[in-house]
């Protein structure tokens, strides 16, 4: 009859909505989901499953190797504060580089949203609590537009056990 819905996350193009102000120590580069929505109210991502962050001028260098303190997470996006930077390594200026992100988004359809997935745990009469994994790892997609990937999602998940 019908194909099941495709809820596999899809990688976005590289997103760069802010630029660090090098003259303001209280500034930085903020490629957050909130800022992306401010720039593009039509941007829709039901759930971010993975994220890739890179420096615009050093796209092939992993951000860990740049010597800057940068947060790159599926919860908020990328945050780089000028006040956290120190000259050294590859970067001799105490301000954030300009970063860009690509995210793997789950389609914004009701059948793909996390709160509509039926629970697979069952309670027994002697059980007072049940537990679900707090996070899951999606099948590995084809990858972001570049090979530089930094992720903060867990790499393994223990599935619930069942007995028959």
Automatic annotation (TrEMBL):
It holds the Pfam family Mucin2_WxxW. Residues 118-164 have a biased composition (Low complexity). Its main location: secreted. Residues 11-105 form the WxxW domain. The keyword Secreted applies. Keywords: Glycoprotein, Secreted, Signal. Residues 116-164 are annotated as: Disordered. It comes from the Eukaryota. The keyword Glycoprotein applies. InterPro entries: CILP1/CILP2, WxxW_domain. GO terms for cellular component: extracellular region. It is found in: Secreted. Signal peptide: none annotated. PANTHER family: CARTILAGE INTERMEDIATE LAYER PROTEIN 1-LIKE ISOFORM X1, CARTILAGE INTERMEDIATE LAYER PROTEIN CLIP. This is MUC5A protein. It comes from Rynchops niger.
């Amino acid at each position: 009859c019908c194909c099941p819905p495709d809820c596999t996350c899809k990688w976005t193009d590289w997103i760069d909505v802010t630029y660090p102000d090098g003259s303001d120590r209280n500034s930085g580069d903020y490629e957050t989901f909130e800022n992306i929505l401010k720039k593009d109210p039509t941007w829709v991502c039901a759930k971010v499953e993975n994220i890739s962050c890179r420096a615009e001028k050093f796209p092939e260098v992993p951000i860990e190797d740049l010597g800057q303190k940068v947060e790159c997470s599926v919860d908020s996006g990328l945050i780089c504060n000028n006040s956290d930077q120190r000259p050294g390594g590859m970067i001799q200026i105490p301000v954030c580089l300009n970063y860009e992100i690509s995210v793997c988004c789950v389609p914004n359809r009701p059948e793909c949203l996390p709160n509509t997935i039926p629970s697979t745990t069952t309670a027994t009469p002697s059980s007072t609590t049940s537990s679900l994994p707090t996070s899951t790892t999606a099948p590995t997609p084809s990858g972001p537009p570049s090979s530089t990937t930094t992720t903060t999602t867990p790499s393994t998940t223990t599935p619930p056990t069942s007995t028959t």
